[in-house]
């Protein structure tokens, strides 16, 4: 798995949540806690394995749950064009 | 518990946490048009130097750190800056949702294609009338309607559908229906601004003399259908985002609470935006009577415009609106609390 953030998206971390604007369709997306964590790590260029381990520690979830969350979230962001 | 949409939540959390979510940045006060209602005519920013590209980039860095998401690049005419592309590049790199306000007159085929590379959130173009002569009368430049129309075509060719903006004045009020049809035919979003703003006290008389009457403002608001669609929400408090979740910076780097509320709070290049923002506190003392006003809920008062000319225009328009809605004004108090006064 490798992900890169679509450079056309505008994004800002405000009050602990990432808000992402897609200028193509003028949609505003708001990420929840887990989404914000994953997105922040992706922005830093972290590898998926590092993010999954981070999720387990930050949110006290099993590795299986973290992998599922990571997969669902990145798939959703790919569908929305936020990740390439 | 109330569930907020992302837009409402962003507005609310930026307001509560005092994040300058939206910033108007005037890249220049230069313009090749000479619009009759323009507040830049005779404005102080025309007399001193513009920020250079490096200063603008430093400002963008500060705005990113402060949490600004929506960056509105305006002027004057931003396309007159030869370094506009450099600035747009920086804005994109820093993750802003960029809106560009322009007359469109300088957008040839090449510039239209270049603008499309920056994934702008929106491009707003001022069109005053669908009648070329009337439009040119307002801009003061013959042939400007033709150039603006060409600019719009060049954007459309490159996949950008601009938003058409029309500030209403006595000069173009009667053209509104035709202009709406003109925009609809081109499948363009059309927005109107019924209350033009003087921004500076020294502009007050010149600009107010161009403004449509408060009766026409009221008529326009009702015509928009806001009271029929259920979109209207009575104003609960006399609060405004100026200096709370929005700000404006002029071409010299002076920071204001908003574009219409031009009380200088500091100079970004010298003091840094973040420091200025930290201590900025809009002064509402000119609106002290508004807090206990019976028609506040129906009042569209702009604290910025009122600071330049006083609140009278809005007082009249709010009373007209309340009358037309047949609202017994004494039952509606300041801050949206019902007084339950016995009117009998």
What layout of secondary structure does this protein have?
The complex is a heterodimer of chains A (84) and B (344).
Chain A: E1 10-14, E2 17-22, E3 27-30, H1 33-44, H2 48-59, H3 63-79
Antiparallel strand pairs in A: 1-2, 2-3
Helix pairs in contact in A: 1-2, 2-3
Chain B: H1 6-16, E1 22-26, H2 53-66, E2 70-74, H3 84-93, E3 97-102, H4 109-116, E4 122-126, H5 132-139, H6 144-157, E5 163-167, H7 176-185, E6 189-193, H8 204-208, H9 214-223, H10 226-229, E7 246-249, E8 255-256, H11 268-271, H12 273-279, H13 303-309, H14 312-324
Annotation keywords:
heterodimer, A: 84 residues, alpha+beta, three-stranded antiparallel beta sheet, 3 helices, 3 strands, 49% helix, B: 344 residues, alpha/beta, TIM Barrel, eight-stranded mixed beta sheet, 36% helix
Provide structural commentary.
The complex is a heterodimer of chains A (84) and B (344). Chain A is an alpha+beta fold. Chain A has one domain (10-79). Chain A is built from three helices and three strands, in the order βββααα. Chain A has a three-stranded antiparallel β-sheet, with helices on one face. In chain A, helix 2 (48-59) packs across helix 3 (63-79). Chain B starts with 5 loop residues before the first helix and ends in a 20-residue tail after the last helix. In chain B, strand 5 (163-167), helix 7 and strand 6 form a beta-alpha-beta unit. In chain B, helix 9 (214-223) packs across helix 14 (312-324). Chain B has one domain (6-283): TIM Barrel (Alpha-Beta Barrel), CATH 3.20.20.70. Chain B is an alpha/beta fold. The interface between A and B is medium-sized, with 18 and 23 residues.
């Amino acid at each position: 798995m490798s992900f890169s953030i679509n450079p056309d998206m505008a994004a800002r971390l405000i009050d602990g949540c990432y808000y992402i604007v897609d200028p193509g369709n003028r949609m505003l997306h708001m990420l929840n806690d887990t989404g914000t964590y994953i997105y922040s790590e992706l922005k830093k260029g972290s590898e998926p394995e590092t993010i999954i381990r981070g999720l387990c520690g930050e949110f006290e979830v099993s590795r299986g749950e973290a992998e599922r969350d990571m997969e669902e979230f990145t798939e959703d962001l790919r569908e929305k064009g936020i990740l390439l | 518990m109330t569930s907020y949409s992302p837009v409402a939540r962003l507005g609310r959390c930026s307001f509560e946490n005092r994040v300058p979510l939206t910033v108007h940045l005037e890249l220049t006060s230069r313009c090749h048009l000479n619009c009759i209602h323009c507040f830049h005519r005779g404005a102080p920013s025309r007399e001193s130097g513009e920020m250079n590209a490096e200063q603008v980039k430093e400002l963008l860095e500060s705005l990113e750190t402060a949490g600004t998401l929506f960056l509105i690049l305006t002027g004057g005419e931003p396309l007159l800056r030869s370094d506009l592309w450099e600035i747009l590049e920086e804005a994109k790199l820093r993750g802003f949702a960029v809106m560009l306000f322009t007359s469109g007159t300088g957008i040839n085929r090449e510039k239209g294609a270049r603008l499309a590379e920056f994934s702008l959130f929106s491009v707003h173009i001022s069109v005053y009338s669908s009648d070329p002569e009337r439009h040119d009368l307002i801009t003061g430049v013959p042939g400007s309607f033709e150039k603006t129309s060409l600019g719009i075509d060049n954007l459309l060719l490159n996949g950008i559908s601009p938003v058409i903006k029309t500030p209403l004045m006595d000069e173009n009020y009667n053209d509104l229906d035709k202009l709406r049809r003109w925009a609809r035919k081109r499948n363009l979003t059309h927005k109107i601004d019924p209350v033009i703003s003087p921004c500076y006290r020294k502009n007050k008389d010149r600009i107010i003399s161009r403004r449509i009457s408060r009766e026409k403002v009221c008529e326009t608001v009702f015509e928009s259908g806001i009271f029929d669609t259920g979109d209207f929400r009575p104003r609960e408090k006399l609060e405004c985002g100026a200096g709370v979740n929005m700000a404006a910076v002029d071409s010299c780097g002076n920071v204001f609470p908003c574009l219409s509320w031009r009380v200088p709070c500091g100079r970004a290049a010298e003091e840094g935006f973040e420091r200025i923002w930290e201590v900025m506190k809009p002064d509402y003392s000119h609106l002290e009577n508004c807090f206990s006003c019976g028609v506040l809920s129906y009042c569209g008062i702009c604290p910025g415009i009122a600071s330049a000319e006083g609140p009278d225009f809005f007082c009249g328009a709010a009373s007209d609106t309340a009358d037309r809605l047949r609202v017994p004004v004494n039952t509606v108090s300041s801050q949206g609390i019902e007084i339950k006064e016995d009117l009998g």
